[in-house]
Amino acid sequence: MRYCINCCIHLLPNDLHRQCFRCRGPNHNNQKCPVCKGENKIPLYTDSKQMKLLAVLEVRTDHSESWNGFFCLRKGKLCSLIFGLIIMTLVMASYILTGAKHGLLLIPSPFHYGAFTSNPSLMDNESLSDMKDHYQHSKMNISYVKDYPSIKLIIDTITSKIEFITRQRPDLEELRKQEPHMFSVIPSKFLLNSKNPCWYEEYGGNTTTDPYATNSYALYSKRFRTIFDYLRKVFWNHLYHYKDKHYRLRCLPHFYIIGQPKCGTTDLYDRLRLHPDVRFSAIKEPHWWTRKRFGIIRLRDGFHDRYPVEDYLDLFDLAAHQIQGVLQSEAAKERGKMNNIIIGEASASTMWDNNAWIFFYDNSTEGEPPFLIQDFIHAFQPNAKLIIMLRDPVERLYSDYLYFASANKSVEDFHEKVAESLQLFENCMLDYSLRACVYNNTLNNAMPVRLQVGLYVVYLLDWLTVFDKDQILILRLEDHASNVKYTMHMVFQFLDLGPLSEKQEALITKSPASNTRRPEDRSLGPMLPTTKAILRDFYRPFNTKLAQVLFDDAFLWKRT
Known about the structure:
The protein has 560 residues and is of the alpha/beta class. Helices cover 41% and strands 8% of the residues. The protein has helices at residues 70-102, 128-138, 148-160, 172-178, 180-185, 216-220, 225-234, 265-272, 309-314, 317-327, 330-335, 357-360, 373-380, 393-404, 411-429, 434-438, 441-446, 456-463, 477-482, 484-494, 502-509, 519-522, 529-550, and strands spanning 3-4, 43-44, 198-203, 240-242, 245-251, 255-259, 278-280, 342-345, 385-390, 472-476.
C-alpha cells in the first residue's frame, strides 16, 4: 500500500483509502494530485500484517520519485516517529484492555519485595549484604522494595489480638447426639488379648455377598479398587465361626500420625511400615475423621454422600486379618499369647482440619466449633497414641506452596500470596477470636497460602484439652533429618515396640528419605529474604508459646 504522508498518517486500510479527506482513490499520484502536486511527498510502505509491539518501522523512498531538499527529509522522519508512537499506543491499549478482561493483566502489588532499610534488626540474622547477594544472584531487574513496614503493621495488629484461651470440652452425651451411628458401631470396650483396639462384629452375609459393595473409598477411587478386589477374595477365609454365626474382626488404629503436612510425615510413615509389628490402613491418608465422614472428597468439589464409619473400618481389614491369625493360632489359645501387632493411620489433616464443622454443627460459640476431631477420637479411644511431626513453620509454608501450587510458581508470587493471606487473617482477627479464625472455613479457603497450618500451638493446646501430654509424641523434622536413627528409636519406645535385629534397624533407618522436594521446585531457590522476615515476625509469638508449652526452646526455630 502507498499513501500520502500529508493525508494518510493514520494508515487507513485499502478499502477505506478513498475516504481519505485529501486523496481520492487508490490510484493516487503525487504528480496529478492537486494537493500534493510538485511536492514529492515521501510514500510510506508498511506490511499488511498486524504490527507487533516491538516491530521495526521501516521507511523506504520511492525510486520513481525523488526527495527535494533537506526539509522533506526531516519532515519524513518526524512523521514516521509520530506514526510509530501512535501504533505503539494502540497496541498497548489493546493489550491492557484484553488483559483486564481475561484476568491476565499484571498489576503491581502494593507490597514490594527486596531489601528494606527501615529496621534491619528484624531480619533474624539476615544481613543487608546477604540480601544484596540474593538479588544479584537472582538478577532481578524489577525493584520490589520498601513496603515491609506496612506489612509489619498488619502483623503487629494480629499479634496484639492473640489470646490463648482454653476451650470448653464437650461432654460425652453431646457427642453421642451428634454422631449416633458411629457410637452404635464402635464398642466402648475392646479385646483384652490384643494390644491394638479390636472387637468382633457379627456378619450376616453369605459367601455370595460382597462386603465392600457400598464402600465409598472403593466406589470413588479407581486406585483403591485393586486393594478391595483382594479383600473380597480372602474375606470369607478370615471370618470367625462360632455357634452357627459368623464374626469379622474389626479394628481401629492404635496410634495416629496426625500432622503436620509437609513436615516429614510421609517419611516417618514409610519407615514405620518396615517394622514387623506395625501395620497401616490400606490407604496412607484416609482423611476420614476430618473430611470423608462429612462427605468431602475434594474441597473444591463440594459435598458428596457421607462416608459411614464402616467404610473407614474396612481400611484396616488387611491388618485385622493378620491380628486374627495371631489370636486364632494354637500357641495363642494354649498360652494366652498377646497380640503385639499394632495399626497406625497417617492422615496429616487430623491435627488441624476442622473446616467442615460449620456445615454440620450448630454454631453457638461465637464462630468457634463446638466439637473438634479429637473429641470424637478420645470418646472411642481414650488411650490412643498420637505422633506429631513439626518443622519451622516458615519453611513449611514455602514447601506447602511449592507442592500444591499448580502453575506460575515463583518467589515473587509466593510473597504476594503471603501478603494477601496476612491481610485476610488480620481482617478476621479484628472481629473474632484466634480459635474462630484458625477454624474458619471461609477464611481458610480464601487465603492463597495455608498460613493457619503453621499455628501449631493453637491446635496442640486444643488436643491437650482431651488427651494427656504423655500420649502425644512431638518430633521436629530438622532433628529427624539430621539423625534418623535417634528419632526412630524415640518412636519405637513411644509405641512400646519390640527390639529389632541390626539388619531390620538398618533397613528402617538407612533407607532414602521419602517425599522430598521435586527438582523443578528446587530450581526456584529459597524464598525472598523479605518474605522470610515477614513470616518470622508472624509466627514468632506462636513459636514462643509452643516452646513454653513443650519446655523446649528448639521449637523457637531460631537457627533455621
